[in-house]
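Look over this record as teaching material.
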Amino acid sequence: MTRAKLVVVGNGMAGVRAVEEVLARGGDRKLEITMFGEGPYGHYSRKKLSEVLAGRQQESEIFINPLAGYPESSVAMHLGSPVTEVDRASKVVFARNGTRARYDILLIATGSRSITPPLAGAYGCEGGLKSGVFAFRTLEDCRAIQRCARSDRTAAVIGEGSTALEVAWGLANRGSSVHLVHPSAYLLGTKLDRRASEVLYARVMSRGAIVHLGSAVADIVGDDCVEGVVLENGISLACDMIVLAVGSRPNVEIAVRAGLAVELAIIVDSHMRSVDDHSIFAVGECAQQLGRVLGSVSPLWEQTQVFADYVTGSDPVGGIPIEGQPVNPTYVTCFQPRSIGPGPEAIANIRYECVPTWGQARR
């Protein structure tokens, strides 16, 4: 029997999980699977990068699937060869290394990348980030920060989400002095109430990081390398390195060039199909349903299951119910500060459930 050709663009968490779900349904008997990925390695847990940064885990411990285990008859791998163009008329993808692959079904799972804000002084003469300024999103970012972080270094972490807290925690555990420049007036203000945020603030400060609440960076000082930052309130902070942890943006460039419908990300239906080309699917942080992009793990797993059900014929009718989806199921599950009751003991427990523990074990 001639097998249909499934091409997967992206070898991160979403792409790998989608292939695993297809194989679990016997999809390799119906589909000839080819995967392209920008990274030269397989699927690792991005959530655990802060543990690697802190020196509490080795890189090898965060790999969930190195992809070496797939038989060649099941999946043809092209690692380090990202797809750059999609020809929808011919149903062919083109990779950076010149490889071409025809598809009957195309899955785009390109994820997202760090936002690098247009801060004065953040960029070098060639347009890239200045020496000493880092993003924190990938294993390569983590390695670059590790090479720079030492006990005699001072770091400024810019951001107000959980990633910024995790980076600050990781650098503090490596012995670096840390400034956390936090634009909002309260830590994790969209996830915690004021009292819980104050407990978290005290906890972070007790571990040696200096938190600058309600502050934003106006300028990064230094010509060839970082020497410090100037806040909008005029305060100057001397530092040797800066980590930007201000959010992420979906990788949708190949979809835009292919003429697919894109808003925040690639617009898909309940089966994860592109709304204007039903031979193309998208899952993960590059997919958008009803104006929402869901970046946490639980909906990603559901998306890959729905995709695999559909393309293998296991459940071609079912799909993701698009009514009543929580915006971020992970945080809805973890952060429930108003449901745990009053009192300092109850509020203090939040820090063990939801945020970096700054050197102590999670409950």
